[in-house]
Amino acid sequence: MKDKIYNSLPAEFQNLACSLQGLKLKRERMGGLFQNFLQAYLERKDWSYEQLIDYRDNRLREFVKHAYETVPYYNDLFKNLRLTPSDINSIEDLKSIPVLTKEEVRKNPEMFLSSKADPRKLIKLTTSGSTGTSLNIFYTKEQLQEQFALWWKYRAQLGISLDTWCADFGSRTIVPQKQISPPFWRISYPLKQVKFSAFHGNENNYFEYYKEIKKRNLTWIHGYPTVITPFAAFLLDNNLSLADQIKFVTTGGENLYDFQKEQMFQAFGVYPYSHYGLAECVANFSEDIDHKLTVDEDFSAVEFIPDGGDTYKIIGTNFSNYAMPLLRYDTNDIAVITKRSNSVTKREIDHIDGRSGEIIYLPSGKKVGALSALFSQTSFIVEAQILQKKDYSLEIRYVSFENPKSVESDLNLVTKLLKSRLGDEISFNFKKLDRIPRTSRGKLRYVISELENNQEIKSGGIVKND
């Protein structure tokens, strides 16, 4: 009903509605203890790695005690394992308890709620993973404010201030889909955002986006990589550039791939920064000014469990959400780490190698990841998606700008790279689309697998992921 009313309003009243919603969000996210949290994070940014680890483990000990005393699931778990909170003194001691899966939380969310949490004050967030299955997370406004304080610390280190206006390329439907003429954006004055529609971005409309960014002299672009990249590709294809204006590009919510970084750099004159975070608040990684992606040790306790070669499962413990503690929570995400940490340097991640659902499987049981490299050298493919069918074959869906010879060259390159990775085990074909469908939250899933529902898959082949 609200959407119907909103869509019936003229653009100027939709701007007002966006601003009213923005004011509400600003109070929730950046009111209360936000400034206190932000100041504390900024003070800790110059701490030594040893100081950060001591701080992390102190928070961990306090949080484990809270979970044991007030959360039914952990009270039962510790008793069954004959453990007490005093047995957990550091991140290494967490190995005494089993890894927690999303399915366990999904089935019994009330078992993870603290008895000290006031149900009337809890905020409910429904999130979904690569299978689209929903998961309910409950948290307090204080936890939300701490998370946003951490994110603004990351932005502040790059040079972005709370007063910096942003060209926001998010996923919300803020412009009615039936609208066919500009403006294809709405404004949230409290959040200082010009929100560009993800659903109106095409070759006919991107020039309007470009003119609006130029007119408003916006210097910061933020959003999903799969929403920003097609706009960057349009600029390149039409010999347009924002390199003389844009100072910052930041991304989140999805993996950021090398080919996307290169397109953004060519269009905007700066390489994008990314951060990794989750609604569950069990892990957060931020890029510094030198594009080093490191663990935010003072926000959560992150473990990296070997998963073969240089890949590691990301397992995290949140200690900011006292309403819904999650200890050793399996994010189902994979990190690539080649740089070994020591006692004086922060833990650095090369990149997130796909949410773990971004993997294809061969009949032999072999898993093939790092698929973004297939498109890292292409010039005219704007976005792509891989569908793995029940017979293991692949359908490579892609969107490209019209330039048949160049697109053919790109497809030949992808074919060569695919064959080098897959051998002759499975077949594949290409399918051109005008637009690749997004999830209900506006995200583009890089790999879609029909194998997850195929009951004939050997247990060693497919692992159903969230």
TrEMBL record:
Coiled coil: none annotated. InterPro entries: ANL_N_sf, CapK_Type1_Caps_Biosynth. One of its GO terms (molecular function) is ligase activity. SUPFAM superfamilies: Acetyl-CoA synthetase-like. It comes from the Bacteria. Keywords: Ligase. This is Phenylacetate--CoA ligase family protein.
